[in-house]
Amino acid sequence: xxxxxxxxxxxxxxxxxxxxxxxxxxxxxxxxxxxxxxxxxxxxxxxxxxxxxxxxxxxxxxxxxxxxxxxxxxxxxxxxxxxxxxxxxxxxxxxxxxxxxxxxxxxxxxxxxxxxxxxxxxxxxxxxxxxxxxxxxxxxxxxxxxxxxxxxxxxxxxxxxxxxxxxxxxxxxxxxxxxxxxxxxxxxxxxxxxxxxxxxxxxxxxxxxxxxxxxxxxxxxxxxxxxxxxxxxxxxxxxxxxxxxxxxxxxxxxxxxxxxxxxxxxxxxxxxxxxxxx
Length: 278
What we know:
The chain is mostly helical and 278 residues long. The protein is built from 15 helices and three strands. The chain has helices at 5-18, 28-41, 46-50, 62-75, 80-91, 95-112, 121-129, 133-146, 151-158, 162-174, 180-187, 194-205, 212-218, 234-249, 263-266, and strands at 251-254, 257-258, 274-276. The chain has a three-stranded mixed sheet with strand order 2-1-3, with helices on one face. Helix 6 (95-112) crosses helix 7, helix 8 runs parallel beside helix 10 and helix 10 runs antiparallel to helix 11 (180-187). The chain is globular, with a radius of gyration of 18 Å.
């Protein structure tokens, strides 16, 4: 295994948060509340999750939808059938958001299982999502990458709607997948795209591939704006990722050491106590 699953869980959440440029597009509480539902029950429960009213009701809220569903993606990554069913259960009434979430979710699941093949990824996503506007845009990305198209041309051809943003996120990731900083820096030039790309790159490269200086610069303290928005510190993100992995696995221990959960999450975690595989 190239990186541990824990490092990839952490990288996914950290990458998404670090990549946010427009603070109004991040509501970390969506991720927290979504995760707590899974942790409290030890599984995904559609009724319980939907009762939290986490999903935005408009088609232009893809970023918030990503943050709301990231815990479900992490919790369902081991099974494509489970992943597709769980995501469809929560985003079924918003087609353009649904297709984007399915595309990102499938790619993240492959990265978490170390099954992501960049040469096959877009074809696999198209098969997973089905014939949709998003799939058509991903087909364009295949052609654009094959012709070594630059970012400016890609943005012009793919457009600024949700399917276009999803496709641009994959373009940025696939053309610089081993370089987190470059991937995210390019994506921040396109509105509502950077957290999608950050999550993909974070899952693929794990925390080991996120530059330390970039991480320190972006996430060193809770900084608020006039709207009351606060970017979580890295430790808070790691705690949530650790709790999700521990409960998903039914495990709190790794190599004899207890995984320390924050107090508010510890009370919700599953009581099962077995050892995590190295």
